[in-house]
Amino acid sequence: VQLQASGGGLVQAGGSLRLSCAASERTFSSYFMGWFRQAPGKEREFVAAKASSGGSTYYADSVKGRFTISRDNAKNTVYLQMNSLKPEDTAVYFCAARKGPGLVSTKTSYEYWGQGTLVTVSS
Questions:
Q1: How far apart are CA 6 and CA 24, in angstroms?
Q2: Under a CB-based contact definition with an 8 Å cutoff, are residues 90 and 13 in contact?
Q3: DSSP string, 45-81
Q4: In Å, how far are 41, 78, 104, 107 from 56, measured between CA atoms?
Q5: CA neighbor of 7 nearest in space, from 114, 79, 89
Q6: What is the C-alpha to C-alpha distance for residues 56 and 32, in angstroms, rounded to an integer?
Q7: pLDDT for 56-115, tens place per residue?
Q8: Exposed site from 33, 56, 72, 85, fewest CB < 10 Å?
Q9: Chain-centre distance for alpha carbon 97
Q10: Distance between CA 72 and CA 79 in Å, rounded?
Q11: Distance between CA atoms of 12 and 104, rounded to whole angstroms?
């Protein structure tokens, strides 16, 4: 599976961005999709995830209530709507996919990764 993330940019604190991740796989609907982020000098951390075919959603506590993950299986795309952005949300955001079982928030559970898109939130 090839994943292509886009939608990053520079935004002021309190603003919004929507990230997209397009997948090359025709059986996209069967993949569990996640978003992670990595700030400079920090470990890659879990942000949000959505199970295949309209399943459950999961969020890190730090983004709960501000970010929304969704997917359009007809377009082979997963989205991350980010509202009320804070400077501490500044990071490179990666989408990831897996087909098999695994822990939602563990990056090693994901088999496929996109290239990342940079989000910068100014104060």
A1: 14
A2: no
A3: EEEEEE-TTT--EEE-TTTTTTEEEEEEGGGTEEEEE
A4: 31, 14, 11, 18
A5: 79
A6: 10
A7: 999 999 999 999 999 998 999 999 999 999 999 999 999 999 998 888 999 999 999 999
A8: 56
A9: 10
A10: 8
A11: 30
Least Cα distance to 90 among 6, 11, 4, 33 occurs for 11
Amino acid at 4: Q
Sign of CA dihedral 114, 87, 65, 18: negative
Q: Enter the DSSP assignment of 31.
A: S
Residue written as token pair 């942000």 = 47
Which residue type occupies 122? S
Q: Identify the residue whose tokens are 């209530």.
A: 65
Tokens of 51: 């199970």
The owner of tokens 């500044």 is: 90
